[in-house]
Amino acid sequence: GKTWWYKITAKDQAGNESPFSDPVRAEKAKDTEAPEIVSIYPASGEVMGEGFRSISVLAGENAGLGLAKVWLADGDGEYQELTEKSLEGIQASAVFELPLQGLEDGAELRVKVSVLDRAGNASQEIENVYLLDLTAPAVAAAGAEYLEETKTVSLSWTGADEEDLSGYRILRKAREEEN
Questions:
Q1: Model pTM score
Q2: C-alpha–C-alpha distance, residues 70 and 133, integer Å
Q3: Sign of torsion, CA 54 55 57 58?
Q4: Is residue 167 within 8 Å of 139, Cβ to Cβ?
């Protein structure tokens, strides 16, 4: 902890001043409380892929946060430190991008997270496991037809049957030579 020492004197309106008091001290107790990982998003068991490859870590601390650290397990299950980010204040979050290159569709991605405060106290390590989905859904038999009567274009396609399909994106271009 840190210690501050003080001496006090009293003055009146006539300019008379008393002798100093005996020294007094104030002491800040050493921070021994570990920070806490409040949440990690997404939760363990969720699916990750090329378009969704980051985690967000929210941490809290009584005296001041320091760092958030992330480790990834390699093929042998051994954890290697991926990166660390500074955290400021008593509550903060950090976003970490996870590398997916070289990993196979359907594999598990094991991530371990820990937070340190400025005094060096460490939170409990939390391990999350994510399932990798690296295969894009398919669109088959797409068609477009201009309807003269209504002056509209009608689009049709046979959709994908993936359980995790979240929607379709439609792009339009005015000229054939454009990409």
A1: 0.73
A2: 21
A3: positive
A4: no
Q: Residue 178's pLDDT is what?
A: 57
42-81 CB burial, b ≥16 within 10 A, e <16 = eeeeeebbeeeeebebbbbbebebbbbbbbbbeeeeeeee
- Report DSSP state, residue 52: B
Residue 122 exposure: Cα atoms within 13 Å on the Cβ side: 6
Strand spans (E) along the chain: 2-6, 24-28, 36-41, 47-48, 54-60, 65-73, 79-86, 91-97, 108-117, 126-132, 140-147, 152-158
Sign, CA dihedral 98-102-105-109, equals: negative
d(CA 145, CA 56): 44
Query: Is it the case that residue 139 has pLDDT exceeding 90?
Result: no
Angle formed at CA 118 by CA 112 and CA 122, multiple of 5 degrees: 35
| Residue 164 three-state SS | coil
CA distance 64 to 80: 26
pLDDT over 90 (residue 163): no
DSSP-derived secondary structure letter, 11: B
Q: CA-to-CA distance for 67 and 119, rounded, in angstroms?
A: 11
DSSP 17: B
Q: How far apart are the first and last CA of the chain?
A: 64
Locate 145 and state its tokens: 């037809």
Residue type, 158: T
